[in-house]
């Protein structure tokens, strides 16, 4: 990827990511509280739905930018003929690699954000420093495996071969379906991130977390928060993909025109 393309991907991915995360943050808070072990009301209900937003605001831009820079770079590295049957595989590999890299930034931000969402009275920095004091850096990466697994399973939807409007619509439908299917993994991720230090769930075992939810709450527990999750990701897919394509195209056009 040339320098102009890399810069365009960085800025477009970051701007789109920040916009989506901040606009749809209330839906994410509702979803997290529905999935929390203490239940929706005890986790805060509809109060303080912007609790944890500083963590998202700080982590969103570098997270989204890291994904798209990696995504575009891997696509260039795995260059294939536009008519090749391997093109979908190339996009899947590029998106999956992008998620692995982006999660290095996303997971610490997510851990702090989710703990703030279920304890709205606590400040974000206090939660962050508390995790570092009690668990160290390892505590900030609790749930990394479950997050990567969840994201990689539907990373195939990142394919910017259509115009921005078509990409946005396709992203919305694909994202909504994928959100529903991967909700159990999202529930496991939430339980792992919110678990008390030293508990069996805090160890990060996805199957163990899923089994615990199944044992205590059954199928409804595994799909807790599915509707706000579907709504957020469908709207997010529409906004993100459309905004990314439009912003990147504009930046490339401006860069080409400038002397």
Features of the shown structure:
MCP_dom_sf, repeat, 259 residues, Mitochondrial S-adenosylmethionine carrier protein, mainly alpha, 11 helices
What proportion strand? under 5%
Fraction of residues in helix: over 70%
Taken in chain order, the helices and strands follow as: HHHHHHHHHHH
Instruction: Calculate the mean pLDDT score and round it.
Output: 84
How many β strands by DSSP? 0
Shape summary: globular
Strand-pairing-aware structural class: mainly alpha
What profile does the largest beta sheet have?
A: none
Protein name: Mitochondrial S-adenosylmethionine carrier protein
Catalytic activity: S-adenosyl-L-homocysteine(out) + S-adenosyl-L-methionine(in) = S-adenosyl-L-homocysteine(in) + S-adenosyl-L-methionine(out)
Membrane topology: Multi-pass membrane protein
Main location: membrane
Topology summary:
Layout: H1 3-23, H2 25-35, H3 53-77, H4 87-117, H5 124-135, H6 137-140, H7 144-153, H8 164-181, H9 183-194, H10 206-222, H11 226-257
Description:
- With 259 residues, this protein is mostly helical.
- Helix content is 75%, strand content 0%.
- The protein is built from eleven helices and no strands.
- The protein has helices at residues 3-23, 25-35, 53-77, 87-117, 124-135, 137-140, 144-153, 164-181, 183-194, 206-222, 226-257.
- Helix 1 packs antiparallel against helix 11 (226-257).
- The longest helix has 32 residues, at 226-257.
- The chain is globular and about 55 Å long.
- The model has no long low-confidence stretch (mean pLDDT 84).
- InterPro entries: MCP_dom_sf, MCP_transmembrane.
- It holds the Pfam family Mito_carr.
- Keywords: Membrane, Repeat, Transmembrane, Transmembrane helix, Transport.
- It catalyses: S-adenosyl-L-homocysteine(out) + S-adenosyl-L-methionine(in) = S-adenosyl-L-homocysteine(in) + S-adenosyl-L-methionine(out).
- It is found in: Membrane.
